[in-house]
Amino acid sequence: MTRTMYCLTAKDFAVLEAMLMRRRAFADASVPMLERKLAESSIVPVGMIEPDVATLNSRVIFRVDNGPVETRTLVLGDASAPVGSSLPVGTWRGLCLLGMRTGQSALIKRPDGSGESILLEDVAYQPEAARRAARNVAAGRRPHGLRLVHSATRPLGGAGKIRQTEGDDPGPSAA
After folding, report:
1. CATH number of this structure's domain 6-131, picked from the four choices 3.90.640.20, 3.10.50.30, 3.30.2000.30, 3.30.390.30
2. Res. 15 pLDDT band, cuts 50 70 90
3. Collapsing DSSP states into helix, strand and coil, what is residue 17?
4. In which region does residue 36 sit, left (phi positive, over 0), alpha (psi from -120 to 50) or beta (all else)?
5. Which keywords fit this entry according to its UniProt record (predicted)?
6. Which end of the chain lies in a sparser environment, N or C, as judged by fewer CB atoms within 10 Å?
């Protein structure tokens, strides 16, 4: 990896530290990459991470070496995910993408000398941003960028009526 700054949540940083300790015990080839990732990362509280940063369980859209666009969910392990939908952070690509911002690219250098460039095109879903949006909705605040323009059932501000009339009971088969 090149000198790229990453942004990790405190939780993601702790996950990578634990992964580093386990992999050091087995002299894993990814240890230098993990050490660089942790050294080059700034740590932010989970609730303060920007929505364009790839975190654990984020759905990311990326490109490898100007190849086709790929969409995956960054996961800790791949035990129950459908084939091709997830990308474990224990892999070279998953580890590289974790903590990157939309539009950021990095070069992965493997121990065998091979390398590839990864560009994070978009963070389609980030769990931390989704939690913030849900809290805002629960608190009565409108989600950022969304606005009710028209109601299909009644005019805005109007009182609606129930449309069912007498004798319009569909019976038990409708249940």
Report:
1. 3.10.50.30
2. very high
3. helix
4. alpha
5. Kinase, Transferase
6. C
**Residue in the block written with tokens 């490109």:** 63
Where in the chain are the domains?
Answer: 6-131
Specify the pTM. Answer: 0.74
What pLDDT band is residue 83 in, cutting at 50, 70 and 90? confident
Tokens, residue 173: 């088969």
Rg of the chain in Å (alpha carbons)? 23
Q: Do β-strands 6-9 and 41-44 pair in parallel, antiparallel, or remain unpaired?
A: parallel
Q: Integer distance in angstroms from the first to the last C-alpha of the chain?
A: 59
Contact status, residue 72 vs residue 86, Cβ threshold 8 Å? yes
How far is residue 83 CA from its own chain's centroid? 18
DSSP, res 125? E
Task: Provide DSSP, 67-80.
Answer: --EEEEEEES--SS
